[in-house]
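Minutes, project check-in
Item: structure for the 256-residue chain
Input as provided by the requester:
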Amino acid sequence: MSRLEVRDLAAGYRRHRVVSGVSTTVDGGGWLGIIGPNGAGKSTLLKAIAGLLPHTGEVRVGGRALTSLPRRERARTLAYAPQIPQLPMGLTVTDYVLLGRTPHLGPLGREGRRDLAVVEELLARLDLTDLAGRALHTLSGGERQRTVLARALAQRAGVLLLDEPTTGLDIGHAQTLLDLVDELRAELGTTVVTTLHDLTLAAQYSERVLLLDDGAVAAEGTPGEVLTPASLAERYAARVTVLHTPDGSPVIAPTR
């Protein structure tokens, strides 16, 4: 299992710093949900952890600095799915998802039966089998989102970073996707970090929640500790009540 450590991370764009002083630890096989109001810096933080933005501070996976790893090993260590992906033209869904297997290919660079089996399983579990031969540019927004997530999951990396993975998905596909991530976490010991706007989904799937506001950590803890009406009123300027399902899972409900 891959333990993720973030120490005093700061990042931004050009001269504008968006996040600063962020520190957190996610135990191997854990799930951290990053939440916060619009503009809080959630996507910037995830990109910085993934090494896609210049940053200060340190990111370590399994005790090793991520920047010290060779590119191929880094891709086997950490997978990232952006909120707004740039998809290459001319590829089918299957071709694109197979790109996730690239870090695991042998010297000849050809996919084997195991790689094809991984992709076939993911297409089935994400309801993409019927779209396997479709060109990427013909997909709907939700279909594209599931395809991007399938590619990230195909990497079988120790750490999985997902930026708003349920964007554009109906509730059924959103639940299917998050269930699959949770199943892979249990099966493979994958460490998961997601940004989510839907606070109920964040509360029900994440073991711990980090509340980001104005680029800094405002609170971190279990969903029950962080997602309180008082904290959400303060950080989101929202009127909510916290309900619970029969199994005790929290539901964040807006009130008029």
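Outcome recorded: The mean pLDDT is 92.
No further action items on this chain.
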